Fold this sequence. Notes:
Structural class: alpha+beta
InterPro entries: aa-tRNA-synth_II, aa-tRNA-synth_II/BPL/LPL, HisRS-like_core, HisRS/HisZ
Helix content: 40-55%
CATH class: Alpha Beta
Family: Belongs to the class-II aminoacyl-tRNA synthetase family.
Number of domains: 1
Subunit structure: Homodimer.
Mean pLDDT: 89
Radius of gyration: 22 Å
Largest sheet: 9 strands, mixed
Strand order of the largest sheet: 1-5-6-12-11-10-7-9-8
Pfam families: tRNA-synt_His
Protein name: Histidine--tRNA ligase
CATH topology: BirA Bifunctional Protein, domain 2
Number of helices: 14
Shape: globular
Distance between the termini: 14 Å
Amino acid sequence: MPDRADVMARASELRARFEKAGAQPVETPVLQPAETLLDLYGEDIRARAYVTSDALRGEQMLRPDFTVPVVQMHMANGAEPARYTYAGEVFRRQEHDPDRANEYFQVGYEVFDRTDPAGADAEVFALIAETLSGLELTPVTGDIGILMAAVGGLSTTDRRKAALRRHIWRPRRFRALLDRFAGHAPVPPSRTALLAAADPIAGAGPDIGKRSLSEVAERIAALREDAAVPPLSETELSALEALLSVRETLPFALEQLRDVAVDLPAITPALDRLEARIEALAARGVDVRNLGFEASHGRSSMEYYDGFVFGFLATSRPDLPPVATGGRYDALTRRLGDGGEIPAVGGVLRPGVMLELEEAAR
């Protein structure tokens, strides 16, 4: 494993490189208010973050990443356009993978610019690709926005679409919901009995727990309403499955997705943005004809990505985490902007993994 001092030195070198590219260096506190992160991600974030508290500041989390505090800082007083860079430690619990580090350095480059989103996507990707040149890596790209657009265009209720959007970053739950909404999954007997009862709350016992009886009644009413909704059409379901299975080089991926758009026309604007991004990447010298695209890429990352996503993976070391990851997070600026918003995209590198690969290649 690389020495900590070497990792810190490499992190400083990378940040200096991004400063030279025009980024302003910024710092963020290691302790972040838990309320903001819980509001963004729900209680699921507790399984990935270290939580502490004190009497004055309430619950705090050891910084799980830099993007959220950088967005908060920019939306509070940042100028436009803006480019930022940072370097420091992040902390992630790794209960399901004890071999992975739970404390490691990240170096990032973030762009806030509303004039040319496709150009900003290409700028971030090309800069990080150039920074990583010399390492044996496999780059891969994706676009969460295409899947979000597909869900938004389904011929079903807003409640069902909201549930699917909420679980885009939880592939198993998303798949289970699709099966349920398509009528392919059996309804649990307990739910059938609940919905068949004339008064499901009668004889339910004392009002305990966090939900009031009125909230329980509202939930039962919502379940009854959902039970009467027709299943997803097989045409839309097949098109959505075809979309999720796209795994090709960029030009062929776009071609396949255009075919899918015949049955899911709502994705057409997202595909137009993908096409503009391909052109912007090519203009920066990226070999788009050999750059991979996976429609499901990024669905296990932090939930703030809502468009372009990318990663650089160690070709000969699949056991290692990605050397770099990133993507577009426009919706996050709306959530944290107190009424304001700005298109934003960024990426992070892991200098420790870079050094580990360099040592192995010697």
